[in-house]
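thought: fold this chain, then report.
action: predict
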Amino acid sequence: MEIDTHTSLETKAGPPHDAVVTHADMMRAFEAFKEANDERIATMERRGGDVVLEEKLARIDRTIDAQARRMDEITLKAARPAIGHDRARGQGSPEHKQAFEAYVRAGETTGLRALEVKALSVGSNPDGGYLVPPEIEAEIGKRLANISPIRGIAGVRVISGNIYKKPFMTAGPAVGWVGETDARAQTASPTLDELSFPAMELYAQPAATSTLLEDSAVNIDEWLAQEVEQVFATQEGTAFVTGDGSNKPKGFLAYTAVANASWTWGNIGYIASGSAGAFPASNPSDTLVDLIYAVRAGYRQNAVFVMNRKTQSTIRKFKDTTGGYLWQPPSAAGGKASLMTFPVIEAEDMPDIAANSLSIAFGDFNRGYLVVDRAGVSVLRDPYTAKPYVLFYTTKRVGGGVQDFDAIKVMKFAAS
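observation:
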């Protein structure tokens, strides 16, 4: 009987051994961190602080961050299935894949042009280039979901056009309770408005040597996906947080932020930290509680915190009234750290804590933020611009923006 070794490897239970070891090291480092921080607090109460203890705490804090990054890298690597097996299960076209590989390796376009004539779906835009096979496009999408922090928690829609339009009600129809035989007054019609999410072009341009392209042992599909994933993820990550909407998605921090008490649709509500550029000196975690409860109950069920590592480092020292630490490391290898039981998503594009910065976001991003992908990733082979290297101009179209302004709240580091 033939055994599908790929399937058996894919379904093997448990995280990678390296991730388990790194997680154990991280848990030990966090225990050391708590012990050092407790000692620091006691010393401050006795004699106003200790430089040596502060340095020790900062060193352990950096160790925890390094181990978290290492664990993320290990689990991400383990989550990448080999490209090509979807095709073996009946998805994708072997003809398209072979023609695309011939184009990438040698610039041969005959096979792709023949497919273009048959299906009218392989050709790209007027600038030239060809769409990658469906299995490669799907794999790039999976990789981006793993390493692009906001994409991983946002809602995602795939479209075939250049823009996605979503209607929403600014005022619903009039409703009410009536008795069985009471007269029914005519109800008002709902008032509708529309959100638009245009898909903008995102590109990467990996380079290859002729030796690499001629080496039949090199999996060209895998190479291309690995080369573009980090570039795409980095650009996406920035745009989804701070993008201005000009030739790029609009980030959730680019919308007007207003005090949550006066929040209106179209704006992002904020909770003030109570101190300019910092948490308040007394009971700093109270502002985090205020941020959590600024989000309505229906959104809190799937809510997450979003912040960068530096902000996370500050919060890591906070305790509750019983002396327990509010920030907790992942409960298992491959998991997420938590803050007050809610997952913490690390997005390095979130601003550091500073005067009037919006450094912490909280909410249900699956309902609050929408990522729009236009179907298709195209590649244009360029053997001339950077000889002797061959460039591969790879593009995909991506849009994004807030779709539910009530689902996301932020903390503004200001006195009021």
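thought: worth noting. The mean pLDDT is 84.
final: tokens above.
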